[in-house]
Amino acid sequence: MTSIENPDLGPDRSLLLVDDDEPFLRRLEKAMARRGFEVETAGTVAGGRAIATARPPAYAVVDLRLEDGNGLDVVEVLREKRSDARVVVLTGYGAIATAVAAVKHGATDYLSKPADADDIINALLANGGDLPPPPENPMSADRVRWEHIQRVYELCDRNVSETARRLNMHRRTLQRILAKRSPR
């Protein structure tokens, strides 16, 4: 595995990745290690908080919603232990309210999944006022809608009637959407 040297990282290349999506976490861990980071991973809020307390990293990428709680709890611990840490909050459930909450808790940036390693590095290394470049392949509006419907469907324990009620959608319309493949 070849490593891509990144001179913008500085002397402390420690990176904490916190996500409960194991395949995504492993792929991101390998990609970030190849780009010169010294990566530690955690799959839970408790694990992320423990690492942030014991060995506060210079950089962190934290999923917002984890099985055992909210990733913002990890961000708070990071801010207490290391105020100069650059933290990017990732989530599959992007919304303005959660983005504002993430920034208020000390996140440097906020990205919606799916985000690739280059998007994450751009966000981690962006200078204060600089905005990272827009993503190369952003999700289409149809895909964002589909992702939102899938999220609500899962949160309603795959109950079509309850999901339709919460989305203010006719049940049969929702059934047709769920029967189709995801848009690109």
UniProtKB/TrEMBL annotation:
Q: Keywords in alphabetical order, please.
A: DNA-binding, Phosphoprotein, Transcription, Transcription regulation, Two-component regulatory system
What are the residue boundaries of the Response regulatory domain, all occurrences included? 14-128
Report any Pfam family annotated for this entry: Response_reg
Q: Where in the sequence is 4-aspartylphosphate found?
A: 63
Does the record's keyword annotation contain Zinc? no
Output the CDD domains linked to this UniProt entry: REC_RegA-like
Q: Which InterPro entries match?
A: ActR_PrrA_rreg, Bact_response_regulator, CheY-like_superfamily, Sig_transdc_resp-reg_receiver
Q: What is this protein called?
A: ActR/PrrA/RegA family redox response regulator transcription factor
| Protein source organism | Sulfitobacter aestuarii
